[in-house]
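Hey,
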Amino acid sequence: MQLLETIYQGESLNYLQATESFQAVLQGRVEAPVVAAMLAALKTKGESVEEIAGAAYALRQEAVKFPQSDFSVSDCCGTGGDGLNTINVSSIVSILAATAGVKIVKHGNRSVSSKCGSADLMEQLDINIHVSPEQSKQLLDDVNFSFLFAPDYHPGVKHVMPIRQSLKTRTIFNLIGPLANPALPEVQLLGVYDKKYCRPFAEILKILGAKKALVVHGSGLDEIAVHDSTFAVSLDDGVIQEFTLSPENFGISRHSIASIQANDVEDNVAAAKQLLKGQGSDAHIDMVAVNCGALLVLNNLADDFKAGTKLAKELLKSGQAYQQLQKIKEASYA
């Protein structure tokens, strides 16, 4: 691969070069040692915005196609990798947002860096994660929610899995997962494990066609924090802005990180069920509510973060979210 020399010299690939390179990788047309060298060289150099965007676009292009909608679709996810083992916030937020009327396509996998990945939690909540794209679209139409199990939609990733495992370090593939939703969401709440990725990811989402997004890093967390401040970068119809949010901006009290941590899958499942029934701890309720509140603002269902958080709390306490979970479960096996 001639482009390797470009990376070795410390230069970045442009968007088209990155797209074509990663399409070749995902199609199995590049030998493993060359792929390993490319991933390592990109990491050493530092992946550029165009390289990450091109790789993500390649992953989208090579994915199993999801039927497109005539309405706006949202996703809520994080890169993972913050190492703090908090409850699986994005999955609970997704179900809660669906309760509020947001059309959510959650794209996820089993645990890699956390104690409980989104697919692990969905299975434990008895949601069928292996449904066809057509069934998933029907779920989205009927119950505002569908879960796309990443390995079912990205067959090309099998060509790089052994290489990623042998490298034993984060690569560009750790970054592009949250950008590779086959439903091509126009609205996205995306958490990153390092503050340095907030601005680049907003720029990448713009390149990939997102209309509204909020990329966040919450003082060590890949989501909006309740223990300290959150650095956020918004994308709104092409305009990118940076700002800092505090728990007070959401109208909540502060909570320690320890109060939102979970030890294992069982802890996560118990927390999710309690929350959706409206019976979670104050810390858990606030953590889910601030993140859901932001997603509601992105979808124009709340005017500001305080109003969004308040609405999310009301939905939790009403028990409607648990009813929504039952509808999602039943529909996923229909």
